[in-house]
Specification:
By secondary structure, the protein is an alpha/beta fold. The chain has helices at about 15-25, 85-95, 110-115, 130-135, 160-175, 175-185, 210-220, 230-235, 240-255, 255-275, 280-285, 290-305, 305-315; strands at about 5-10, 40, 45-50, 55-60, 70-75, 100-105, 120-125, 140, 150, 155.
């Protein structure tokens, strides 16, 4: 299916103000060669909807927008312990049945669960309510620590600001790394956090790292991806032992140096494949792989297709 263009987010009474703001910002029309998304908030009874912080929000569209959107999002809401009404649940189920991409973050996941869309699937929600979700819906494999969980046409995300991670993941998956990175830059956000990264960390993620020595090393690594970058070399530059560096890195990022570098290399490879005509062999060299064959193996593992097939999917024909 072509990448999504029309986006409809369901905003029930008590909708999370932060959740509504996140999707509104991400899918705003920006120009500059970026996709022109057609975004709408919708609700069962259009009009003024009270948010979770008590502020009124004018929602002009009804559930008919869920019936036609390419991407349908269930926003979090204050009364999530009470399932939405039948019309809303039917709208989510119908959207999924016709092939739309259906997503939710934070406690919006409870709406997709109530609609039966998560049975037999993995899913996540705000870590505080993961136990409640698992108890109410034993058919769901709840991953309490994940930032987001991608199950193909159903994608769920963690709480609060992790809604940005969910949206950027969808953009990266459907529209490519260049688009996701451009929108992330516009919003002054980290361009990518892996879905398996922990929801809550003792210190910030690499892009916002307050450990000056660690932050300097990570910034250096981003500009030297063509080099091997063994952990020992990164530790030496951080003036730490290898063991201390690995421990502080994991505490700050929720992942290992090896996994972080792998994700960084592949994300850069995606962007080069989308935006340049460089041979795959040169792409492999620029992101630090010894050969196109090594890049291909890693790329197939991450994307399910080889680099050349991925590039063709982002080739724009006039």
């Amino acid at each position: 299916m072509p990448p999504f263009v029309t986006v409809a987010a369901h905003a029930p009474p008590g909708v999370g103000m932060l959740g509504a703001a996140i999707v509104s910002e991400v899918f705003d029309v920006r120009g500059q060669g970026l996709p022109a998304f057609e975004f709408a908030l919708c609700t069962e009874r259009p009009g003024t909807v009270r948010t979770d912080v008590g502020l009124p929000l004018l929602v002009e569209h009804g559930l008919e927008r869920l019936a036609s959107a390419d991407l349908v999002i269930a926003l979090p809401w204050a009364d999530f312990r009470t399932p939405p009404g039948p019309a809303v649940l039917d709208a989510f189920a119908s959207a999924h049945a016709r092939g739309a991409l259906v997503a939710a973050h934070c406690v919006g996941t409870f709406a997709l669960a109530a609609a039966g869309l998560l049975d037999g699937r993995r899913a996540t929600t705000h870590w505080r309510f993961a136990g409640l979700l698992a108890g109410r819906h034993p058919g769901i494999s709840v991953e309490a620590d994940a930032l987001y969980v991608d199950e193909g046409r159903v994608v769920t995300g963690a709480g609060a600001a992790a809604g940005f991670d969910l949206c950027l993941h969808l953009l990266r998956r459907e529209h490519g790394a260049a688009t996701a990175n451009a929108i992330a830059r516009d919003l002054v956000l980290p361009s990518h956090r892996d879905g398996g990264q922990a929801q809550y960390l003792t210190t910030p993620v690499p892009e916002d790292c307050r450990d000056e020595r660690l932050a300097d090393v990570l910034a250096w690594a981003r500009t030297h991806l063509h080099q091997p970058l063994p952990v020992g070399e990164l530790a030496r530059r951080a003036l730490m032992s290898r063991r201390s560096f690995a421990r502080r890195f994991t505490a700050a990022t929720g992942t290992t140096p090896h996994a972080w570098l792998l994700g960084l290399r592949l994300s850069r490879a995606e962007e080069l494949l989308e935006t340049t005509d460089l041979p795959v062999e040169e792409v492999a060299r620029q992101v630090g792989y010894g050969s196109a064959a090594v890049l291909r193996a890693q790329f197939v593992r991450r994307r399910g297709v080889p680099p050349r097939t991925y590039r063709r999917s982002f080739t724009r024909t006039p």
